[in-house]
Write a structure and sequence with these properties.
Shape: globular
Structural class: mainly alpha
Radius of gyration: 23 Å
Number of strands: 2
Mean pLDDT: 88
């Protein structure tokens, strides 16, 4: 792959040396943030416990086994692959290896997204700013959890479809493979079809070929341990009022922090820039933006999927303005220095991994979230006479299920399997509220 950008004076098989340096500078910032994001107990440890159970029984469980309120009830475990994979990763290298793997998956998405931006003809400055914009909000979702494994899939689908829009359909065959893998890892695999179907209707590529690939991709999602449950679960989760009422990330976003300030500001800036710049933007970009934008305004967790599509439009809006005022071609002409500096920047985030950073940063960045009860857990382990069934804070419970598996808890992070009565009971106990209605 080569680029024919005005910024490039000399080609490189993948990047010019200047482009490599620019990309390395951006990805260094992004991966440094990933490296210091702590592991959050309710997003991570219950899955390790599921992995333990699979290893112990040599099969995927069919009943609930972590709580005493739901013990023995039928249950399915769609995140079984993540659970097994990261149990092995965590046992092998602890938090350091776990976060390193997270950096690889998140970094892969941003590498693919960078290629997408550059192939659209965006300049280096525009691509850098857009990437940093996406990452600044996306960092809300950098903590290790099953959906992190799907980020590269989003990058692959986005790159393939944007190439298809320009008449390059030679990689469409990859989409059924991505759909198969994604559906076996996380329920968000439906995003593939939220991208492909608008492209078939509004896109400018070979629609017939993409339609056939879409059908094959749908079929591939049924090659799954839960072939029908995977689709059923998507709609049951979306319509689950308990989840929407009690899980923060399922609620609509509120403009209450700087990341949400950026998100809501972008909603206001885009119409203004459209009136000024009048960009030539494919219709399907606006369909994606409006569709994913509506989703993001209904639930915080959907912001993840909106960001790259918003960034594609922002790049179309900003690139002409930036190119008019910034000339980048005369900077960073020394290829050797560019490559050496870029490699150094790529290596820097590794120094921020747990077990490495403490040698030069001390304990400024905790490995686990502040609600992870490491010392309490050690005390319970030293007092085996305590009862096996225990009520505890939700975040504590999610850590207990992995570290103290014999202690069955009142509730875990599998909220969708719990009744409203249990949720309310837990809330009443946690708030020391009497006669709560």
């Amino acid at each position: 792959m080569t680029y024919s950008n005005k910024d490039n004076t000399k080609k490189h098989p993948l990047f010019s040396s200047r482009e490599f340096l620019t990309f390395s500078s951006v990805i260094m910032i992004i991966l440094s943030v990933v490296a210091v994001v702590p592991l959050i107990s309710n997003d991570f440890f219950p899955y390790l416990r599921i992995g333990k159970e699979i290893v112990r029984t040599r099969q995927i469980p069919t009943t609930e086994f972590m709580t005493y309120t739901q013990y023995g009830n039928p249950a399915n475990y769609p995140h079984w692959f993540f659970s097994l994979l990261f149990l092995r990763v965590f046992e092998l290298g602890g938090a350091s290896l776990t976060i390193l793997i997270s950096m690889i998956f998140i970094g892969s998405f941003y590498f693919l997204f960078w290629i997408t931006l550059r192939e659209q003809g965006n300049g280096l400055v525009t691509s850098s700013l857009v990437m940093l914009f996406v990452a600044s909000i996306h960092s809300l979702f950098f903590t290790m959890r099953p959906q992190v494994l799907t980020y590269p899939f989003l990058g692959i689908v986005l790159l393939i479809i944007t190439r298809w829009l320009r008449g390059n359909d030679q990689h469409l065959w990859v989409l059924p493979i991505v759909s198969f893998l994604w559906s076996n890892i996380h329920g968000s695999f439906i995003i593939v079809f939220f991208i492909m179907i608008p492209a078939i209707i509004f896109g400018s590529g070979n629609r017939k070929k993409l339609a056939v690939i879409s059908i094959i991709s749908i079929v591939s999602t049924f090659i799954n341990f839960y072939p029908f449950e995977s689709w059923k679960r998507i709609f049951s989760m979306v319509n689950n009022q308990v989840i929407r009422q009690y899980i923060t990330e399922w609620k609509p976003p509120v403009n209450d922090n700087w990341q949400m300030n950026l998100l809501f500001s972008s909603f206001l800036i885009i119409p203004i820039l459209i009136a000024i710049v009048k960009p030539e933007t494919p219709t399907v970009y606006w369909v994606w933006y409006l569709g994913f934008g509506w989703m993001a305004l209904t639930s915080i967790r959907y912001i993840i999927w909106l960001l790259p599509f918003e960034a594609l439009i922002l790049s179309k809006l900003f690139d002409p303005l930036i190119k008019n005022y910034m000339k980048f071609s005369r900077f960073f002409q020394n290829q050797t220095l560019n490559i050496i500096t870029g490699l150094f920047l790529l290596m820097f985030p590794l120094t921020l991994l747990p077990g490495v950073r403490n040698h030069w940063l001390g304990d400024h960045f905790p490995v686990y979230g502040e609600l992870t009860p490491v010392e309490v857990t050690n005390w319970i382990k030293d007092n085996p006479q305590l009862p096996n069934n225990v009520w505890t804070d939700f975040n504590y419970a999610c850590y207990f299920v992995y570290e103290i598996p014999h202690q069955k808890v009142f509730m875990s992070n599998r909220i969708q399997d719990l009744s409203l009565e249990i949720i309310l009971d837990n809330y009443q106990i946690s708030q020391a509220a009497y006669n709560l209605t």
